[in-house]
Amino acid sequence: MEKTPITVAYGDGIGPEIMQATLDILQAGGAQLDIETIEIGEKVYLSGNSAGIAPEAWESLRRTKVFLKAPITTPQGGGFKSLNVTTRKVLGLFANVRPCVAYSPFVSTKHPAMDVVIVRENEEDLYAGIEHQQTQEVVQCLKLISRPGTEKIIRYAFEYARAYGRKKVTCFSKDNIMKQTDGLFHKVFDEVAAEYPELENEHWIVDIGAAKLADTPEVFDVIVMPNLYGDILSDVAAQIAGSVGLAGSANIGQEVAMFEAIHGSAPRRAGQNLANPSGLLLGSIMMLVHIGQNEAAERVHNAWLKTLEDGIHTYDIFDASVSTEKVGTREFAQAVIARLGQKPQQLTPVSYAQAKNVSFNVTPKPQAPVAIETVGVDIFLRHTDRDPNKLGQALKTHKAGAMSLSMITNRGVKVWPDGFAETFCTDHWRCRFKSEALDPSSYQDILALQQSITEAGFEIIKTENLCTFDGQPVFSAGQGA
Amino acid sequence: MEKTPITVAYGDGIGPEIMQATLDILQAGGAQLDIETIEIGEKVYLSGNSAGIAPEAWESLRRTKVFLKAPITTPQGGGFKSLNVTTRKVLGLFANVRPCVAYSPFVSTKHPAMDVVIVRENEEDLYAGIEHQQTQEVVQCLKLISRPGTEKIIRYAFEYARAYGRKKVTCFSKDNIMKQTDGLFHKVFDEVAAEYPELENEHWIVDIGAAKLADTPEVFDVIVMPNLYGDILSDVAAQIAGSVGLAGSANIGQEVAMFEAIHGSAPRRAGQNLANPSGLLLGSIMMLVHIGQNEAAERVHNAWLKTLEDGIHTYDIFDASVSTEKVGTREFAQAVIARLGQKPQQLTPVSYAQAKNVSFNVTPKPQAPVAIETVGVDIFLRHTDRDPNKLGQALKTHKAGAMSLSMITNRGVKVWPDGFAETFCTDHWRCRFKSEALDPSSYQDILALQQSITEAGFEIIKTENLCTFDGQPVFSAGQGA
Ligand SMILES: NC(=O)c1ccc[n+]([C@@H]2O[C@H](COP(=O)([O-])OP(=O)(O)OC[C@H]3O[C@@H](n4cnc5c(N)ncnc54)[C@H](OP(=O)(O)O)[C@@H]3O)[C@@H](O)[C@H]2O)c1
Ligand SMILES: NC(=O)c1ccc[n+]([C@@H]2O[C@H](COP(=O)([O-])OP(=O)(O)OC[C@H]3O[C@@H](n4cnc5c(N)ncnc54)[C@H](OP(=O)(O)O)[C@@H]3O)[C@@H](O)[C@H]2O)c1
């Protein structure tokens, strides 16, 4: 078997110890790896590199396309960029994959049957980080959901489920409220699900789904979610499995993938041969399957499970009622190596046989172009007088192209025409201009409207075009009344 | 004692039975209520009123300002507006309050010590419902957080904690990512917390906080959150307390407040004297404290707890190992009435003595006006060529006032200048125009820029002004690089 080149970073704190233990186990387990080592983390930050990673390290990552990363320490104080955020953005790591498994009774948990994989979109949603404040009272953050971004993460979830022998993919979204953004996520989920008839699929509204996940996680298998829900609920899932210290995760890009433990560098445990290498080891097992070394992955994973159930435990999970021996990092690795070829008796053994020769094709399907027409504009004003009727009267006289004032909302609630006296109004007003029949307008019309409103003394703070796609409006109506 | 006028709706399905049981208990418990009855729900919808509530009902609500509402049935099929959403918007019910309490061992739960109140902002955040699609690939939803809206909900949480003898108020937000929107929420929390030195306060990043809540809810007391997090996590909290069928909730406005059970009208249990009235009863107890009838509230609540621990249970929570008698709705109400004046022995009795004469003042503090300058504009383009450098070259020549092109991002990631080849680009580009030194520009400059970009053949889809407040930029930088 040819060796697969990978890039390894030993990191900070307990990083070097758990990385050494992990690599020792992988090698004894038959993994064929050609290792390039790079320097990241504290030393690099403190040498004056604000990203914590040297330029030549990127070349290694671009060459091997596989990154096994130990935790690092980000120095205290400002000016240091998060290495994880940088890596994710630069390498386009669109999928965050986190298996959350209970190992009861060997690790205590309220949910002994739990075995859930959270697949979290990693690039868009509110995490695009686009925020503006334009009035004294109101701050805005853009939530962006793209069709190709959504399709990639959902395809990834189904490919993953197929490769890892999973039975069901669940989607969480809030499309009863966010009908267009989360609606797109749900719609793409349904489309892609139809291409995987052998896998069960289902959708839950995220609030009820989250309640179910927290209460009876054993009913879920693979769950795919937009970025924010995935951020919150992958932490919930890892925590209630009882195994935050035992969890690994993968960050997958179309070219490059990164594998790690979910915990940090635990500096106060560094250099004492104490740390549990299991989180990083489980991350490295995901890496082995990713690069097609399924047999080694299976051998190592089962030996690790056997070690756990034999009660050979590092300090962090040692519990006199189930543990037989308290060991250090190195001894734990030796115990796993001694069990290579064995399978657990009580815990469920893993099998990666099915995952052979699976290519994770996540390429979005080309979409037929739609006919886009601009039919109006939402003009947002900064305006401190709180009377919507006065504002409506004043704006009614402004027209351009087919457009005239059709409504005013404040925080989304319609306040003109026919608002309610009780509606609380801020200094942030959305004024919608369009024709009743959705006649097209040009951008010159939109400019003329802005010009005339500005000349009348109003302060425009932002605009949003109103469009139709193939004749259908693709903007939300106002709420209330 | 003078009677307090309240408005009551008997609702649909099990509504009339549980309302009758609730009102019988309240009256026997000494509540002084002057009841106006209104018609809402199925009958009203089917009579052709798409809101499910008659116009004269609003008059009653505006008069009494207190609404005790039984669940209703929303007819199947389109065109019917959610009565809860309408009521919330029309009456400005900004706070959703949901106590989540475990009643172990009488109601089974994995979290027997849980006693958490979720206070959820109810009007803004992503739920303002402002969505636009302007390119084929990208859909947008606006997240709006306002200072007065935030201040109202946070003041409410602290006032509630004080009135109900709670010890700690926790805030959840994601301000490490959404530094301006969630940052505002966190900042206002810290400001308001300082006015309540007798109450402990703390802030958690919502992902870690949610994990903690799902795993060890007993460490929390009152938790205040923006709308979306509150929606998800109030469902999680109610579910893991084990008492979805026993939970009540309040929707509080500055004028009017509405009290209800969190469950629905359970039509298949209607008319059979089976339903558990506890959720609505707990809602009505919140109402009694709200209108200052604390003694009656305490008497009724303790009698209800005593009934529960005496094992007098309706079918839904009947469990032979802890229940002594299976009863119907009416008999359950009689059992509570028979225990008025008694206190529970095993469950913790409630006391509302402290809540006397508390006025819930949530009025936002006036803010000193800031000096707002417009210093640039983000112009968003629909553009299907994927080469950021070509786009950058073309836009570099467009200038107005002090503004010229400073960067281009795609889904928030900087792609010009000095982008990375791996960054995945959609058809949605944000082009930032400003001066290095943040020199002010007029809206005429912004119009001139839009004009020149439009004339060059680019399709503008939206704009966002860039502002400084008292000289400080209040817009986020681009990510990456
Ligand atoms: N991906 C990453 O590189 C990453 C992720 C998170 C944090 N960090 C960084 O790590 C540094 C420390 O963060 P932190 O202390 O908050 O979190 P942490 O490193 O995860 O450690 C917190 C505690 O968890 C326990 N723990 C974590 N990993 C363990 C292991 N493998 N074996 C045994 N016990 C383990 C230890 O508890 P006891 O000491 O109580 O035994 C440790 O003190 C910071 O600089 C942070 O920025 C890096
Ligand atoms: N605030 C509201 O007005 C509100 C809220 C939610 C839903 N709804 C409406 O209610 C209707 C029915 O919704 P749904 O069936 O999904 O939910 P649901 O009414 O909450 O009832 C679901 C099931 O929960 C149990 N249940 C709920 N309340 C109970 C009580 N007080 N005592 C005993 N068991 C109770 C029953 O289970 P078993 O039958 O298995 O015993 C019932 O069939 C729909 O029209 C919905 O729109 C109204």
Can you put this structure into words, describing what you see?
2 copies of one chain form a homodimer. By secondary structure, the first copy, chain A, is of the alpha/beta class. Chain A folds into 2 domains: 4-355, Isopropylmalate Dehydrogenase, CATH 3.40.718; 372-473, Alpha-Beta Plaits. Chain A has helices at residues 15-28, 42-46, 55-64, 83-91, 147-163, 181-193, 206-215, 227-241, 278-290, 294-309, 329-338, 388-396, 443-455, and strands at residues 4-9, 33-38, 66-69, 93-101, 115-121, 131-133, 138-146, 168-173, 200-205, 222-225, 248-253, 257-261, 312-313, 325-326, 372-382, 404-410, 413-416, 428-434, 459-469, 472-473. In chain A, the strands form 4 sheets. In chain A, strands 2-1-3-12-11-4-5-10-8-9 form a 10-stranded mixed β-sheet, sandwiched between helices. A 6-stranded antiparallel β-sheet of chain A has the order 17-16-18-15-19-20. In chain A, strands 6-7 form a two-stranded antiparallel ribbon. In chain A, strand 6 and strand 7 (138-146) form a beta hairpin. In chain A, helix 7 (206-215) runs parallel beside helix 8 (227-241). The mean pLDDT of chain A is 94. Chains A and B meet through helix 4, strand 6, strand 7, helix 5 and helix 7 of A and helix 4, strand 6, strand 7, helix 5 and helix 7 of B. Bound molecules: NADP nicotinamide-adenine-dinucleotide phosphate (2 copies). The site of one NADP nicotinamide-adenine-dinucleotide phosphate (NAP) has 20 residues of chain B, from loops.
Task: Give a quick precis of the structure.
With 481 residues, chain A is an alpha/beta fold.
